[in-house]
């Protein structure tokens, strides 16, 4: 779901990694684990950068799948 939201926003995974201040390799590794290893600070940065709603963020990051 996170990959879809990134694509829908017109952004790339690379641009999000850069905006978050983490390496692209680290970002990809965290994405492979379905976002379960992002820190709270990283999640908050993504929520703002991608403009996720509270409901979308909860579904993506709080394992409400």
UniProtKB/TrEMBL annotation:
What sequence ranges are listed for the domain Antitoxin Xre-like helix-turn-helix? 5-50
Concerning Pfam families, the annotation shows: Xre-like-HTH
Among InterPro entries, the record links this protein to:
Lambda_DNA-bd_dom_sf (IPR010982), Xre-like_HTH (IPR046847)
Q: What is this protein called?
A: XRE family transcriptional regulator
Q: Which organism is it from?
A: Lacrimispora defluvii
Organism taxonomic ancestry: Bacteria, Bacillati, Bacillota, Clostridia, Lachnospirales
